[in-house]
Amino acid sequence: MKTIYIEKDSSKTGKDKTSKQSDYAPLDKTLLIVTAILIVFGLVFTYSSSAFDTIGYFKKQIIYDVMGLFIMFFLARYYLRLQQLIKPNILLFITWGLLIWALFSAEAAHVHRWINFGFFKLQPSEIAKLVLIIYLSYSLSKKQDIAKNVRVLTIPIIYTLITIGLVVKGKDLGIPALMFAISVILFSIAGTKFKYIFYTFLIALPIIVIECIIQPYRMKRILTFLTPEETIGDVGYQLSHSLYAIGSGGWFGKGLGASELKLEFLPAAHTDFIFAVFCEEVGMFGAFALIALFVVLLARGLTIARSTENKFHSYLATGITLCLCVQAFTNMSVACGLLPTKGLPLPFFSYGGSSVIVTLAMMGILMNIARQKNKREVLYPRIK
Predict the structure, then answer these.
(1) How many structural domains compose the chain?
(2) Which DSSP string corresponds to 109-177?
(3) 310 in a domain, yes or no?
(4) Which of 23, 107, 201, 326 has its CA 20 to 30 A from that of 34?
(5) Domain extent for 54
(6) 200: in domain
């Protein structure tokens, strides 16, 4: 289906003329610039934060970025057409299959989160983040009078809980917590009453408690993140050294590649705690600049969401924007000791193929929505 738009005719007749959309509006400059800067800095600090296999990680990250950029530009051009061909519920079912496959795959680092294809390790939970946002945006955009008839949300709620539950089963709480938060926001903006959201939270709470009991280290992290120095020889080791790295960077940092804490002192320096290395090498001014970039992304993404009259596009842009920015701010907060330690990568920065590719795929979809919005008086094809 081709999108039709109306353009005012400036001729003397004053008649309107209708033309078929032969091309899209240009890519959103703000999104392009922010993406380019974040990718470049991400590559620089993947190289810098890797204490030992520096070249190996760097080469792989370049490959992941190139793959991600290809997918980003492809989705920026064709996402709407693809969405009309593949229904979101089908994507969700496929994602469930990948999550179940990962549960029966070989254990890595005492968890079941990856599917090893030899040349590439796929982390289905990263895909699940995006697919759940697409599904909920699509499903909620079709619902009418949600505030009056909450029963129409039964299937979306069940599907959401199943998706999050499968990710939790892989011994991961960081991504499920993020997915739950974004889902709650989408249900809220769709018109769901607060009391029903609260009931859903009460249902999820026992699951969180049980997971903390099953894995005692999680409870230790929650109880000790405010005073990591007291458990520096145990669960507070990683956070304590993260704080040392951030503090030792001062206002202007030690310089690129000059981090000392990455040398066997700070675990996961090139993944979950790359922000600590970033602060140590470029200082607080650099950290403020990075935060500002994600604030710009947040503002631009929400502006795009508000500018479209298509509910599906609006929910989708909101969900993607919040997912990227909330994840980024959570990662930074964890590194600074403001939140309990959780394994959430910093978008565009942390080493990892699945994370980088899914992040750039999200940006591609957001760019696609922005391009649709930029056309004057666009008559979007409504999803029935």
Answers:
(1) 1
(2) TTB---EE-SS-EE-HHHHHHHHHHHHHHHHHHH---TTT-GGGGHHHHHHHHHHHHHHHHTT--HHHH
(3) yes
(4) 23
(5) 26-379
(6) yes
